[in-house]
């Protein structure tokens, strides 16, 4: 049985999700505010977190940021905010996915399954050698990244994107290929996810993120890694 933490300040929605997810075999933790969410995220060890951004005490993006300091648990944002700015802020803070209200239960269940598979069965480490890009080094075998000799902390999504690119040096990886490989089916149009995560990777790894040398964009097509 997998554990889901649902964070939402609407009691009726919270109760409805709790009942429906329990019927699907999930163990459910609930929180009406950010403080309770942080407590459950630390002590309840959820496998997936479903988080509303509009909380009464702590901004949802701040909750994501604080969770990400110590945990890589998948976070699905659930919000009535439709603007792309809110999506980008949530993803930039470390969220893995974004579902806009109103939503269908089937859609949420599908996204929970995708997030759950990643938290239980991450891709096995590649036994290949380390890749030295000059500005940074990627150790594929041990899933480690260093820059100027210092370790760089990546989120699971950031690592998945970097690993895919580094394993295919010089090759164009299309947006659709990357979304299908890392997020799974049904995410073909979520290209803004890639812009956010590539921006984060460049800030962490490139000497000049505004003029990247290694993590390159092929406009309208995809991305490429040049050692």
From TrEMBL:
PROSITE patterns linked: OMPR_PHOB (PS51755), RESPONSE_REGULATORY (PS50110)
Chain ranges of the Response regulatory domain: 3-116
Keywords linked to the UniProt accession: DNA-binding, Phosphoprotein
OmpR/PhoB-type domain sequence ranges: 128-227
InterPro entries cross-referenced by the UniProt entry: CheY-like_superfamily, OmpR/PhoB-type_DNA-bd, Sig_transdc_resp-reg_receiver, WalR-like, WH-like_DNA-bd_sf
Annotated positions of the 4-aspartylphosphate modification: 52
Residue ranges of DNA binding: 128-227
Taxonomy, superkingdom: Bacteria
Alphabetized SMART domains for the sequence: REC, Trans_reg_C
Protein name in UniProt: Two-component system KDP operon response regulator KdpE
Taxonomic source organism: Pseudarthrobacter enclensis
Origin organism lineage: Bacteria, Bacillati, Actinomycetota, Actinomycetes, Micrococcales
């Amino acid at each position: 049985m997998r554990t889901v933490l649902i964070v939402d300040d609407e009691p009726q929605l919270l109760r409805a999700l709790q009942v429906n997810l329990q019927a699907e075999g999930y163990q459910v933790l609930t929180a009406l505010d950010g403080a309770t969410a942080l407590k459950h995220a630390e002590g309840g060890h959820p496998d997936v977190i479903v988080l509303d951004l509009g909380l009464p005490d702590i901004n949802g993006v701040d909750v994501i940021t604080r969770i990400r300091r110590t945990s890589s648990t998948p976070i699905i944002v659930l919000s009535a905010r439709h603007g792309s700015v809110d999506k980008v802020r949530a993803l930039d803070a470390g969220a893995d996915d974004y579902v806009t209200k109103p939503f269908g239960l089937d859609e949420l269940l599908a996204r929970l399954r995708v997030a759950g598979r990643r938290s239980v069965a991450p891709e096995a480490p590649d036994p290949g050698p380390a890749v030295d890009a000059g500005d940074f080094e990627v150790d594929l075998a041990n899933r480690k990244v260093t820059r100027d000799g210092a370790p760089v902390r990546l989120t699971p999504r950031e690592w998945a994107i970097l690993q895919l690119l580094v394993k295919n040096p010089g090759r164009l990886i299309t947006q659709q290929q990357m979304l299908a490989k890392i997020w799974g089916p049904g995410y073909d149009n979520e290209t803004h996810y890639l812009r956010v995560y590539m921006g984060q990777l460049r800030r962490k790894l490139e000497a000049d993120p505004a003029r990247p040398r290694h993590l390159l964009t092929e406009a309208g097509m995809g991305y490429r890694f040049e050692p």
